[in-house]
Amino acid sequence: MKVGFVGLGTMGLPMTRNLIEKGFDVTVISRSRPPVEKALSWGAKEASTYRELAEQVDLVCTCLPMPDTVESVYLGEKGLLEGARPGLILADHSTVSPDLNKKIARAAGEKGVHFLDAPISGGPMGAEAGTLTIMVGGEEEPFQKATPAFEAMGKHIVRVGETGSGSVAKLINNLLVGIHTAALSEAFVMGAKAGITSDVLFDIIRHSTGYNTMMDRCLPLIEDRDFKQRFSVKLLHKDIRLALDMANKLEVDYDFTALAEQKIEETSQDGHADEDISAIVLPYEKKGKVTVGKK
Asked: Which of 43, 64, 218, 290 yields a CA-CA distance of 20 to 30 A from 233?
C-alpha cells in the first residue's frame, strides 16, 4: 500500500517514521521544511501539492492542528479531493467536529472516495512508540484496508461506528483530559497550601480511589516546572470548545466541561496558550500564592 501523509508535526512526523520503518511506501507534504527533510532522510518521497499527493497513493493520512486547515486541505483548491480517484481512502487523524467529518465524507462519496475520521490519542510518546489509540468512524471495508497502516502507528485500533463517531469518542476523551487536568491542578494546589508536598500526596492518591492517569502525565512536569509544549493549552481549548458545541447539539448537560473550559481559557489569557496543558496549574498557584512541588 502506498501511503501519503499530510502534516509532519509533533504527532505526524513520528507516525510517518513508523510507517516507513514498517515497510510502507510513504509520500509526504508539510508546510514546514525541516520535518520534510527528516522524512526524506528516512526514505519518504515528497509531493508538491495535496492534489498531486492524492493522485499517487492508495491511502492518505492527515494530522493537522486546526479544523479550518483540515477543511482547506481536503476541500480547497488543489486539495486532496481534486486529485482523488475512485477507491482512494482518506483518513483524518486530526481532532475536529463530527460535522466536519460528515461534510468531507459527503464530498468524498461524490467522487467514489472513502473517508475515515481516525483521531488519535497517546501524545508524542505514543506517536514515537507506535502505541497510539486510533478511534475510527466510517465504513467497514475501507477501515479493514487501512488497518495495516493504522497498526504501524497504533496499538489499540477501534472502529467506533459510522462517519463522525471516531471524533465523538476523541472529543469525549479530551473533555475528560481537560476536566482531569483542571481537577488535579486544583487538588494539588490545595494540598500544597495545606502543607502536603506533591510527592507524598501523589503516592497516597495513586494507591487510592481518586487516581487518574493524567496525574502520571502532568504532575512530573509541574514538579519540574517544565511547561514546554507537548499538547498545548491552545489545542486543548479548541478541543473543549468543540466538545461543548457537540454537547449543545446533542442537548445534554455539560456542567463540568464548561467549568474546565473556563480554567483553560484563564490559562490562555494568562499567557500560557502555547505551553503544555500542565500549565493549567499556574493560575491556581497564582491565586493560592503557592507552588506545587516535592519536599
From this structure: 290
Separation between Cα atoms, residue 221 and residue 188, nearest integer Å: 13
Taking CA atoms, 39 is separated from 75, 131, 146, 172, in Å, by 25, 20, 21, 32
Element (H, E) at 161: strand 154-161
Kindly indicate the confidence band of residue 295, based on its pLDDT and cuts at 50, 70 and 90.
Answer: confident
156 CB-side CA count, 13 A: 9
Identify whether 109 is part of a domain: yes
Q: How far apart are CA 229 and CA 276, in angstroms?
A: 4
Q: Does 240 reside within a domain?
A: yes
| End residue of a domain, out of 141, 162, 183 | 162
Could you tell me how many residues make up the chain? 295
- Structural domain of 187: 168-288
* Confidence (pTM): 0.95
Residue 149 has pLDDT above 80, yes or no: yes
**Cα–Cα distance for residue pair 15/96, rounded to 1 Å:** 19
Q: What is the mean pLDDT of residues 78-107?
A: 97
